User: Which sequence fits this backbone?
């Protein structure tokens, strides 16, 4: 197979794109773009409609699928996760193909444009750096009853195989935490290993029915710390960690005291909470949604309560988006002034139909760390230089150009992003991204130009 930087490797996808966009490619400045990754791709190709009464089948896009597979094979051989590209193809078939390679400093974007630029190596958004606050008065719930828990489990699964003390000790050593007594009682009744049910198709279901969820074995236990809930900078920077005084659960991304020991069956993790909120109980059972990056829901005050009585009917103590995050746009807050308060951490300025906005109301706010602004919404982009605590900044190319030309890009940034709306040529965006990366001496997005001839369109 030709290598990823050989024009022949790309010929088939270029031919498909040329056939689909012949008119626009023939126009002055015409181009096509695409993105190929090991596990996904994005190509602007029409889909063949299946015959009436039949669902779409693989063969309806077989040409695209075969082409993508060849490119994915070349990427794998090159040890590259993905590449985006732009091609200009003349009517004669003469083609200039620009390939944009990955950078260790650039997150995967949506489509052909780069994602967030990580200006400080290994940096993560502020919520991902938060650790739980100590709650000195936290105690186990009154519902904890080790004898009742063990008796109930043994009645429901009398033939279960218990974990040994050695298995439990190994789990504690691996996790670096002492398991709570209720969890030890649970594993003292069943170790919940798949291999224990090779000749018993219904055994696993009996355990799930007995405890009320899919139980992990001791060697599958994990700690749901912040690193277990990764998020792209673009989205993580707009999150905030807030724990009200009456909260049962701390509003964290993750905690070294969240010990995951089960699953709801739908991808949500079940954990024992050893770092509860101000009104919570040590050892309460919480659910971490796979669709959210911050916070958790209360499932039961204790494992005893969960096994004996089942989960809470209604999840509680999940606040709406905190005031630490503010969104100014035609549907939400109607001014920057309305968003400004000392606790503001993240400000998003979205679609706006009035006069451009001044950032003066949020200048000097002690906790403001994120600013995202839709193109054309800022009256004076240079006001950003007065926001000295920013760690993430998302702007359109024109606003970034103003800051770069004035030497006013905030040096406090840990990450940045370029807002791209509509169909924009990738090369200027890549060049702009590389200018920003260069300010922090970070690895640039690589560009490889290949020239070839596809011949005239048949």
Assistant:
């Amino acid at each position: 197979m030709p290598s990823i930087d050989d024009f022949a490797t790309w010929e088939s996808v270029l031919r498909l794109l040329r056939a689909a966009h012949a008119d626009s490619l023939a126009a002055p400045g015409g181009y096509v773009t695409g993105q190929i990754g090991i596990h996904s791709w994005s190509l602007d190709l029409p889909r063949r409609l299946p015959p009436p009464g039949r669902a779409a089948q693989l063969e309806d896009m077989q040409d695209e699928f075969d082409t993508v597979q060849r490119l994915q094979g070349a990427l794998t051989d090159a040890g590259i996760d993905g590449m985006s590209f732009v091609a200009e193809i003349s009517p004669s078939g003469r083609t200039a193909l620009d390939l944009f390679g990955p950078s260790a400093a650039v997150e995967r974007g949506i489509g052909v444009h780069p994602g967030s630029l990580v200006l400080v190596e290994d940096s993560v958004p502020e919520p991902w750096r938060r650790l739980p606050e100590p709650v000195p008065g936290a105690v186990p719930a009154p519902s904890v009853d080790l004898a009742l828990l063990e008796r109930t489990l043994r009645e429901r699964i009398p033939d279960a195989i218990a974990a040994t003390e050695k298995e439990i000790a190994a789990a504690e050593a691996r996790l670096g935490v002492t398991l709570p007594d209720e969890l030890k009682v649970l594993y003292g009744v069943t170790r919940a290993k798949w291999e224990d049910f090779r000749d018993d198709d219904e055994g696993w279901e009996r355990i799930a029915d007995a405890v009320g969820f899919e139980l992990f074995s001791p060697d599958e236990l994990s700690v749901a710390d912040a690193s277990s809930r990764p998020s792209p900078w673009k989205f993580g920077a707009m999150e905030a960690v807030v724990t009200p005084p009456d909260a049962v659960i701390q509003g964290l991304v993750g905690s070294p005291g969240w010990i995951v020991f089960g699953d709801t069956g739908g991808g949500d993790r079940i954990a024992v909470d050893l770092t509860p909120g101000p009104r919570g109980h040590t050892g309460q059972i919480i659910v971490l949604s796979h669709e959210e990056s911050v916070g958790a829901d209360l499932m039961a005050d204790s494992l005893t309560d969960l096994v004996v009585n089942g989960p809470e009917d209604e999840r509680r103590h999940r606040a709406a988006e905190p005031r630490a995050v503010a969104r100014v746009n035609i549907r939400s807050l109607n001014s920057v002034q309305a968003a400004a308060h000392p606790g503001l951490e993240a400000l998003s300025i979205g679609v706006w139909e009035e006069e451009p906005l001044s950032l003066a109301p949020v200048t000097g706010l002690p906790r403001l760390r994120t600013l995202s602004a839709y193109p054309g919404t800022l009256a004076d982009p240079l006001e950003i230089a007065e926001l000295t605590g920013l760690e993430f900044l998302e702007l359109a190319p024109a606003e970034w150009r103003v800051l770069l030309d004035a030497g006013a890009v905030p040096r406090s940034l840990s990450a940045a992003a370029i807002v791209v709306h509509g169909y924009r040529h990738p090369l200027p965006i890549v060049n702009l991204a590389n200018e920003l990366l260069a300010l922090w001496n970070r690895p640039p997005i690589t560009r490889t130009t290949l020239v070839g001839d596809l011949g005239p369109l048949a």
